[in-house]
Write a structure and sequence with these properties.
Length: 210
């Protein structure tokens, strides 16, 4: 966080609240559904309304169902007040919603994960155990990444924040495995000997090389 703060000329204390919102996990980039109306289609609707075309004829030219065009126009001001850019922006805002977590409402998974975490099991071990115990029951299996996300993204409201204390690596937000060089062995000495273990005879510096 300190290195991120230096890039923006900000202190690490101002970076932490931003990362804490998503538990230190990069949010998934939003994308429009391939079935949703595009801005170009909405512009065609707007031009068709100005030209006094019927909704059915507009739908036919766009190869869309008439009900789709009717709902689009009705929810965005009607024929007289419909504007393509404004309607597209409102549709993008309406589509913003959190995806339901697989743990939500699944009491069995929540109970098992909580029990195993109290026993100091890692999320990888829990996910592997569930896979072996329930090979043919999809609703009773879950990935270790979903467990981590449910622990660190508290807005999901599934696993209690106190369970983070049972993770082997104690931290308040999730960190990337690339966040430190130490995990890959870089920046460390192999078979390092502490300077505290140097022999006594080197203190007087009498022998060249000491």
């Amino acid at each position: 966080m300190s290195s991120i703060g230096r890039v923006f000329d900000r202190g690490s204390s101002s970076i932490y609240p931003l990362l804490e919102r998503t538990g230190g996990i990069r949010p998934i980039a939003r994308a429009r559904s391939r079935l949703a109306l595009t801005l170009g289609e909405r512009e065609e609707i707007s031009r068709g309304l100005v030209a006094k075309q019927s909704l059915r004829s507009i739908a036919c030219s766009l190869h869309r169902a008439p009900s789709t065009i009717s709902r689009e126009v009705r929810r965005n001001g009607g024929s007289k007040h419909y504007r393509a850019a404004r309607s597209d922006a409102k549709a993008w805002d309406r589509a913003h919603r959190p995806k339901p977590c697989k743990l939500a409402g699944n009491d069995y998974l929540c109970r098992m994960i909580s029990t195993k975490l109290h026993r100091k099991w890692s999320p990888q071990q829990i996910a592997g155990w569930l896979m072996r115990e329930h090979p043919d029951e999809e609703d009773k299996r879950i990935s270790h990444e979903t467990i981590y996300r449910s622990l660190f993204i508290q807005t999901r409201g599934v696993l209690k924040k106190e369970l983070q204390a049972y993770l082997r690596a104690a931290r308040s937000i999730r960190r990337s495995r690339h966040a430190t060089l130490k995990r890959s062995g870089l920046g460390t000495f192999n078979d390092a000997v502490s300077i505290r273990e140097r022999p006594v005879e080197v203190e007087d510096r009498a022998v060249p090389g000491h």
